[in-house]
Amino acid sequence: MKPSRRNFLQSLGVSVAGVGLAQEAVAAPVRPPKTAKPAGDDQVLFVGDTIAIANTEYGKVRGFVLRGIHQFLGIPYGADTSGKNRFMPPQKPTPWTDVRPTLWWGNSAPQIMEKRYSNVYASFVDHWNYDDVSEDCLKLNVWTPAPDAQKRPVVVWLHGGGFTNGNGIEQDGYHGENLARLGNIVFCSINHRLGALGYTHLKAAGGHPASGNVGNLDMVAALEWVKNNIANFGGDPNNVTIIGQSGGGAKVTTLMNMPSAKGLFHKAVALSGSSLSGVNPEYAEKLGLKVMEEAGLKPGEIDKLQQIPWRQYIDIANRAVDKMADEAKRLNLPRGGFSPVADGVTMNGGAFFSDPNHFSADIPLLICSTFHEQSPSRTDAALENISLAEVKERVKPRFGDKAGEVVDAYAKNFPKARPIEIWSLVVSNRKNAVAAANAKASQQKAPVYVAWFGWQPPLFDGRMRAFHCNDICFWFYNTDLMLTHTGGGKRPRALSEKMARSFLNFAKTGNPNGGGLPTWKPYTVQNGETMVLDDSPLLVNDPDREARKALV
Predict the structure, then answer these.
(1) How many CB atoms neighbour CB 397 within 10 A?
(2) Residue 390 and residue 527 in one domain
(3) Three-state SS for 378?
(4) Are residues 20 and 72 in the same domain?
(5) Are residues 354 and 494 in the same domain?
(6) How many CA atoms lie within 13 A of 272 on its CB side?
(7) Per the count of CB atoms within 10 A, which of 78, 122, 445, 511 is most buried?
(8) CB within 8 A of 334, min separation 6: which ones?
(9) Strands 100-101 and 64-66
(10) CB 186, CB 232: distance < 8 Å
(11) Domains contained in the chain, number
(12) Rounded CA separation 416/418 (Å)
């Protein structure tokens, strides 16, 4: 199946006439990313003792210059989190006196690495980049046109992987070089504690009261580093945008609801993920006690828990989660496990974005999801011929007795969609994205902009569709780097330039208009203004509203 070069929304039979169309802005000519090209075929990488040196509050760092962009990789923003620092708020790194080489990525946070590359399709498509794993993981990366006195907008990338997996450079599309060059901005990415080591709430077990949120406090520490140091890298600490995808999108909305993050960023972007509340503190405290029990320890023996090897500790914590499954169901939690806790101190205890006077109300937010966060037939061509009746059976585990009603509602909303496309749309529904947009819009201060990414790559016989993670490289102007997501070439680059320039405008001003996309109106609950991102982008009013009604 070859993807339609028209807007995918139209190909599914959704009428776009008179539903909020906007005139397309004039885009700059499509071209590959600019590079600093010396005369002839000359040197593009520069590294040496006196090249790419910048100051930080802890000591000088030395990076390298690649194609005119200065890169500093693995800069410490916090101390080693092992031993006595485990389950504790992040500590400041130890200063250094020599110039520190920052030429390679920092360690990935502890996570289960066994069989990381066992799925050859996932490994090929996402082109995973993993290196050493260590509790000494509080490191960040910086791309900048120059470590000078300019005050460039700053973008801080928060990686996906839920709150359990991933790192700041997990995919090639996470690189900040092209965006830094295109927009004259400073781009940062960070690693922080994950999973049980970042979110075991041990308050009831005698641990630190903030132990359930130390992974998020790491992010706050990274943003504090940006505030105190980014001017030395040519960035403006008073113009910082945080952006994350999937679990990173949830990190964005949780940071918007942490008191300690106030003033550390000024715009926010959540891609294919958001949270509207933290984990129930009752569940989190009981889980912390269950972890102690599973480790054979008594409440108060936190020092012994801190000495267990991290890989062994993750197994202990995961067994505790399994034994708490019934408790999670009792509290109506969609799933148990380790993620930020609504403790009412380090993170808001109530519903996010419910207070019009909260600092989050003043932060413009851009939300995007993809048409096909899940594409069931990507590695199974036989599913392309599935019937609508079979789709209803396949989605029963998720929707129960309402499965038939939900599938029929999507089939009616998208009359030309094939059953396999209906399946993907149903399981990839925008319910959470729209709920986040509605909540943010209800604060009635800073605008919220909503996008729906529908561009489909011509790979795997067209079965990948507009899949989870595919939009990242478009926002970051990296479609020619992430070939396994796009195929490369002028077609994805054309959309990427419009998306990247619009994102850059949002990062600079809080308004994405003027980047080449159609005029992008702020989202309202009444109209549901949504920018559909495809070869021919369109602004439409809530195109799947009728289908979503069946999800309630």
Answers:
(1) 8
(2) yes
(3) coil
(4) no
(5) no
(6) 24
(7) 78
(8) none
(9) unpaired
(10) no
(11) 2
(12) 6
